[in-house]
Amino acid sequence: MNRRTFLLSAVAAMSTTGLVAAQHHHGESTPESHDHGMQMSATPDAATMSMGAFYFTVVNHADEADRLLGISSDAAQTLEVHNVEMTDGVMKMSPQHDGVEIPAHGELVLAPGSYHVMMIGLTESLLDGEEFTATLHFEKAGDVEIVVPIFMIEPKDDAAEPVKVGDDLEISNIWARQAPKLDDLATPSASPDATPDE
Ligand SMILES: [Cu+2]
Fold first, then answer.
1. Cβ contacts of 23 within 8 Å, gap of 6 or more
2. How many angstroms is it from 33 CA to the middle of ligand 1?
3. How far is the CA of 34 from the centre of ligand 1 (A)?
4. How far is the CA of 167 from the centre of ligand 1 (A)?
5. At residue 32, what are phi and psi to the nearest 5 degrees?
6. Does the pTM of the predicted model rise above 0.70?
7. How confident is residue 19, by pLDDT bands cut at 50, 70 and 90?
8. CATH of range 3-32+48-178; options 3.90.1010.10, 3.30.70.1060, 2.60.40.1890, 1.10.3210.10
9. How does pLDDT run across 39-82, given as a tens digit for each residue?
10. CA–CA–CA angle 151, 166, 99 (5° rounding)
């Protein structure tokens, strides 16, 4: 499959999940929400905006909860923590603007089909076998830099060394992929008259 077909497929796959939610949250009826980072639905570049996602698990050994407030990285223009929710039988992604709690003696799992870091507007392609760095912002633990290895599909074992933050937090199962699509969905055409040339 050539690069153009791949991009169309990727964008089409995203449109069945993320863009539905994006348009819902950022449609013309709610102009005030344009600063939430999903501007790609409101710009002519939407179809060419490259996207990715990354995942990790945070274990909290402390007696108090912490909170993942946000993420920054040079690898994308915008990074948001999203969750995936089923609403009326439709999967939608919802940005977690207030962050996500990591319970005391509990864990927060970011994984396909659940919480994830959405990378909107990649600054370069996410290539299998390469990696990038990102900084996680925690309410209590502060800023933590991690190295994120890139894969085509979810790795079976920890690809990166787990990162320990003092005695309290441990971050493991770190990995990223470009333009995720749901495994149980056939890749649809980008538009009714765009037939994939397989
Ligand atoms: Cu998302």
1. 41
2. 16
3. 16
4. 30
5. -70, -10
6. no
7. very low
8. 2.60.40.1890
9. 444 444 544 578 999 999 999 999 999 999 999 999 999 999 99
10. 60
